[in-house]
Write a structure and sequence with these properties.
single chain, 187 residues, mainly alpha, 81% helix, 0% strand
Length: 187
């Protein structure tokens, strides 16, 4: 039979061994937990960086599209500016009424071609652009109403360009100024 001393001599190293194994496992588990926390923190940082990169890329693309929209709207306003529009549309011996219809058609087509640009332009500036288009069309219509069927296009062009039409401040210039001011806020 085992004596108490012999039993103590057997249990003591066994107990020490169990304690050492427990401490080793506890230390290893703590390291694993610390590594897991570091990995989770790294993944969070990586996600933040990816999101920031994605947002920066999106912002750059959006700015590019906005600038492109501003360029297109400047081009639109320049194309419907009456001196430019008349020069582009008028042809020799064309009847005044035909020129009027052609001018209005061109204004409408230019506008419809650029309708989607309003997504990238503030509502205030878009309203100025629409107003400019409508005022230009109104000038053409008022001048056209003064023409007879026998009048030639040159007479209508002279009436429009000769300043004989009563107009307020140049709506094209007003819209262009607003566009330029808005672009400056984006850069």
């Amino acid at each position: 039979m085992l004596t108490l001393t012999t039993l103590g001599l057997i249990l003591l190293p066994l107990t020490v061994m169990v304690i050492v194994i427990y401490l080793i496992l506890k230390h290893y588990s703590g390291q694993q937990k610390q590594q897991f926390e570091q990995l989770a923190a790294y993944q969070d940082l990586l996600k933040i960086k990816i999101d920031a990169d994605r947002k920066e890329k999106h912002d750059k693309e959006m700015l590019r599209m906005q600038l492109q929209a501003y360029e297109r709207m400047v081009m639109f306003l320049e194309r419907i500016h009456l001196p430019n529009l008349i020069t582009r549309i008028i042809s020799p011996s064309q009847p005044a009424k035909k020129l009027q219809a052609s001018l209005l058609h061109s204004i409408r087509e230019e506008y419809e071609h650029n309708l989607s640009q309003q997504l990238y332009i503030s509502n205030e500036v878009w309203e100025l652009i629409k107003s400019a288009k409508e005022e230009v069309a109104q000038v053409v219509n008022v001048a056209g109403a003064q023409m007879t069927d026998e009048d030639e296009a040159a007479k209508l062009a002279q009436l429009i360009l000769g300043g004989k039409m009563e107009t307020k401040a140049d709506p094209i210039e007003k819209a262009l100024t607003a566009l330029k001011a808005e672009v400056k806020t984006k850069l």
